[in-house]
Amino acid sequence: MASPSDDIPSITPPQPYKIHFDQADIDQFHRKVQDARLPAAPLYPGLPLDKRDGGAAAEFNPKAFPTLERMKNMLEKWKNKDFKAMEDELNQYPHYTTKVDWCDQLHFLHQPSTRPSAIPLLLCHGWPGSFKEFLSVLKPLAEPEDPDAQAFHVVAPSMPGYTFSSPAPTPELGKFTAIARLYDGLMTGLGYTRYGVQGGDWGSIVAREVARRSRADGTGCRACHLNFLPMLPTPLGKTVSGALLVMPEWATLAVGKYMFDAECYRALEKSLLYVHHGSVYYTVQANRPSQLGFGCIDSPVALLGWMSYFTMGLNVKEDSEERGPDRRKGEKGAIETFFPNYETLNIDWLLDEAWLYWVTSSIATSFRSYSDNEHLLEFITNSKYKIHVPFAYSGFPDEIIDAPLRWVGKYGNVSDLRWYAKAPTGGHMAAAERPELFVKHLRAAFAPGGIDAVSTPGGPKSSFGPNGDKGAIFTEGSIWRKGGLWDDERRKGER
């Protein structure tokens, strides 16, 4: 089980926090963008560009991305941003800071519910996101319109080294284990002795460790929901399966056809697509963070150029013919988009994230999620890190790595899988892309028995649909449940 209760760090009294963008920083940003030295001609004019949408040119060759035209368009849009209006908008939300152990300033959002049956819930973001991922879900989670729907007391911290949270003073304290300890201290210090946790991207890794820290006395994290679950399927043993990841892609897929059924083979194919073609940024940020960091801290153009990889599916102009597909392969199978266009996750959202990284000088310290956590494979496979609290997973079709149900149960390093479902739309940053689905999946997973009004078997037909159905909540036939995440805690309360 987890660490002893005396390992919970204390927090200082939380203080309301108001975001302020200094006018001098805004002026410097505009000078740097205005004086940017862009190339006079495309950097890689000879590379073939994809054609689609009736022959409209697309610039999704990773080697040529971003194109000069796209970079100019993004910079034009960025420099016309009203950062003071953004400041006012962000300050509409409940921000706080506290000191937790070595973290001199831990920034977090805290949206308590007025419902007496609300469940404390810790939301964990990853990279290249921030607390901003969760702005659209705070109030819907805390105050649902339906009086019978499950409500939550929501806490969403900024990971140390991101935006308004202090970075770890040493690489050891930048590890997910140390960050999970801080988060556990934060929740306990806020008075939430029992709570659930949710995470995606690096937030899923931290959330797993928060869940693993659940204490034998019944306090701490009591349930875990993830929307990102990297794992290593090991039907032939960890050594052989690990070798599959470093073999040539074609060879791994050939072997995989004999190892897996159709669904799991598709998941393997998608994982390899990311590992071999979509994870270049991961390698650089893990191994050369300083080389990249100095330029990105100083130059908004360098920062946007680096982060532009994640804008491949986002329209820069409303009338642009540059449209990213939901998920497809380009030259040599390269991943062409992390984020398709969504109402709440679009180019404006990413430009705002880039601004937060630049104005807080935190882009390089955010890279430490990668450079300080080099033993990720060990964490997701070693039984030492197994999650023993009730566990749930929501899969989104545009996620970079899929987690089939049979893999989660066998290889997910969890001992109590309670609930599993797939959404028909959404992807890697589900809370920002499809906030309404994210909220409904969480409510269903935490509902008594894992069943609520929208997920009832034989319930509303509008709740279920095929992949791509924008009006549905769950993919047809995707829900599997053994119970609700909070059932054990409810039973304790009835005693």
SSE map:
Elements: E1 15-16, H1 23-34, E2 51-52, E3 56-57, H2 68-79, H3 83-90, E4 95-100, E5 103-111, E6 119-124, H4 138-142, E7 152-157, H5 176-189, E8 194-199, H6 202-212, E9 220-226, H7 238-246, H8 249-259, H9 262-278, H10 280-287, H11 289-298, H12 300-307, H13 347-359, H14 363-366, H15 368-371, H16 376-381, E10 391-395, H17 405-411, E11 417-422, H18 430-433, H19 435-446, E12 464-465, E13 474-475, E14 480-481, H20 487-494
Parallel strand pairs: 6-7, 6-8, 8-9, 9-10, 10-11, 12-13
Antiparallel strand pairs: 1-4, 2-3, 4-5, 5-7, 11-14
Helix pairs in contact: 5-6, 8-9, 11-12, 12-13
InterPro entries: AB_hydrolase_fold (IPR029058), Epox_hydrolase-like (IPR000639), Epoxide_hydro_N (IPR010497), Epoxide_hydrolase (IPR016292)
Pfam families: EHN
Organism: Pseudomicrostroma glucosiphilum
- Strands side by side in the biggest sheet: 1-4-5-7-6-8-9-10-11-14
Low-confidence spans: 1-5, 51-59, 316-339
Number of helices: 20
Q: In angstroms, what is the radius of gyration?
A: 22 Å
- Topology-level CATH name of the largest domain: Rossmann fold
Give the helix/strand class: alpha/beta
Assign the CATH architecture of the largest domain: 3-Layer(aba) Sandwich
Q: What oligomeric state do these chains adopt?
A: single chain
Pfam families: EHN
Domain Epoxide hydrolase N-terminal: 14-134
Organism: Pseudomicrostroma glucosiphilum
GO biological process, one term: epoxide metabolic process
